[in-house]
TrEMBL record, chains A, B:
Keywords: DNA-binding, Transcription, Transcription regulation. GO terms for molecular function: DNA binding. SUPFAM superfamilies: Winged helix' DNA-binding domain (SSF46785). This is Beta-lactamase. The keyword Transcription regulation applies. It holds the Pfam family Penicillinase_R. Belongs to the BlaI transcriptional regulatory family. The keyword rRNA-binding does not apply. GO terms for biological process: negative regulation of DNA-templated transcription. Gene3D superfamilies: Penicillinase repressor domain (1.10.4040.10), Winged helix-like DNA-binding domain superfamily/Winged helix DNA-binding domain (1.10.10.10).
Length: 123, 123
DNA sequence: GAACTCCATTTACACGTGTAAACGATGATT
DNA sequence: AATCATCGTTTACACGTGTAAATGGAGTTC
């Protein structure tokens, strides 16, 4: 079905730069995930099966490239959360973070600008 | 580990009103999940094991009550998404929805009010 | 008290996921 | 040519999850 958590870590690397070999991917995930090469290979094969990436031969090895855009993935995940927990609306989500004191000064400033823009557009 | 998707559906019912029996829960999830009674029982037992709910005897059956608050669950899920996809910051998340044209007029109005409040508080 | 009815508890089973080891093929080295 | 190194491919295996069926035990009814 969807892209799993571990698979997403691989995708993140490829979104940061592609095409890349399995070895490069392993190096790029690096510290946070203490993976063996075999683990990365398995994940790549599962992603291939899911058509989330494609492979092109480069000599004896393969280079991998994302087929789905990060934007699409982010959209799907975000909408999922929003629908499951906030009745599909954004304002309650932000209200939640606000109540939890999870809005940084910077967040507030940026949100303010963002809303002003939208407000103007709507004019 | 965490509360799974199906388990969350049961929790939602209990958050809406508790304590409730397995049968009442089954009835309350109703249409969207076409579950047998056994399914609900399994989920309840897993939730008990995870200390997410507790059971109290009521005659021959049990009544179930949440032990973790919906707020806590929502926080965890939301923070998870934010950290994984938006570098832990709220503004980029809202920007994402904005770019996807997923902000309703109502969302915008509410966000505006929210931000104004925060801005005032901060002085 | 034998049979029935309701619950709960136990067991099941396939599929996805995280995490690799084992095996195999193909090109490089002696 | 025989061996070594380097990839990819196949197989593995435990644990969580979704989804229940089977079993068991305690009241309830003939």
């Amino acid at each position: 079905m969807g892209i799993s958590e571990a698979e997403a870590a691989v995708m993140e690397v490829l979104w940061r730069g592609a095409p890349r070999s399995a070895e490069e991917i392993l190096e790029a995930v690096g510290a946070d995930r203490d993976w063996r090469e075999g683990t990365v290979k398995s994940l790549l094969n599962r992603l291939l099966k899911k058509k989330a990436i494609r492979a092109e031969r480069d000599g004896r090895r393969y280079l991998y490239t994302p087929l789905i855009a990060r934007e699409a993935y982010v959209s799907q995940e975000s909408k999922g959360l929003l629908d499951r927990l906030f009745d599909g609306r954004v304002a309650p989500l932000v209200a939640h973070f606000s109540e939890q004191r999870k809005l940084s000064r910077r967040d507030i400033a940026e949100l303010k600008r963002l809303i002003e823009e939208l407000d103007d557009e709507r004019g």
